[in-house]
Amino acid sequence: MIANKEILKEIALSLNVHPIHLKVFLASSEKITLENLKSEFKKQSEKNPKPFVKWVGGKRQLIQQFREDDLYPPEGFDSKFATYFEPFVGGGAMFFDLLPKKAYLSDMNEELVTTYNIIKSDVDGLIRKLKLHKKNDSKEYFLKVRALDVKKLSEVNIAARFIYLNRTCFNGLYRVNGSGKFNVPYAANKNPLICDEENLRKVHVAMKHTTIKHQDYSKVLEKAKKGDFVYFDPPYYPVSKTASFTSYTKYGFLKKEQEKLRDVFVALSRKGCFVMLSNSDTPFINELYSNLGKKIRIEKVFAGRAINSKGSGRGKVKEVVVINY
Ligand SMILES: C[S@@+](CC[C@H](N)C(=O)[O-])C[C@H]1O[C@@H](n2cnc3c(N)ncnc32)[C@H](O)[C@@H]1O
To answer: Are 273 and 227 in contact (CB under 8 A)?
Structure first.
């Protein structure tokens, strides 16, 4: 049995596998050779789902860096018994990377949560509806589907509309106007992937032991226990007034909300949870998470984000990661 943490990390990184999955595999197999390690993880990675929506702030590109910098996953998190919480789940890049045995997710975007739940309960119905959207796709059709009143649709139709609009709208943005109506224009991409049947079926399997709710992130305080792992990826505090992108939902997420979130972070840390948070590298956020005791530290990472539609707004942006382990 390989006990050395550094060796374990090296092997996991070189095989491009998850350290938690490697640990579980090593503990459960008697005959370990490099060949069966490789083929086992190749088989596993082919089975792994990925996010089914494009989501602003999606963490897919950053996860490998988090791992290399030892920021994630927390070494003490025992994925066999403890629960993973992702209260601002969005596209769920971290959830799909970790693929925990037990997970509790939430988001304030009600249509997104309905979509996850339909993938869990009626993936066949959803695939049928998405195939119809794919067949009919055009700018006129997009505008008709976008104009539908969500309150009058069944849940499976809400989910199919949500994925269809996400796949065909500009940059996969989710933006609503003052009355909560989705208002992103059609992208006219060639051949957008509207119905990724194979991936949707994999997500369906991953959702088996997962609960997802439409609720405020602060509810995590009622559920998380000592040893659980909570990852917060909130709407970021704006780097400048014009760079502000906080309207994933009709609710904003500015100073007051960021302060309340910091209090929830500290309360979970006191409970004995492993807590990790991403945010923008701004003086306000740095100050918010400073002087909170020895355990809570701020690290910086670089992210290539493309939110701004003007070329000049693209490029590498520094972000902070706050952890208590
Ligand atoms: C930065 S995104 C998360 C991105 C995600 N980690 C990913 O990889 O796609 C922030 C998410 O928080 C959600 N949100 C905003 N306010 C919230 C609140 N008060 N409680 C829970 N979720 C909220 C938004 O709908 C959005 O999906």
So the answer is: yes
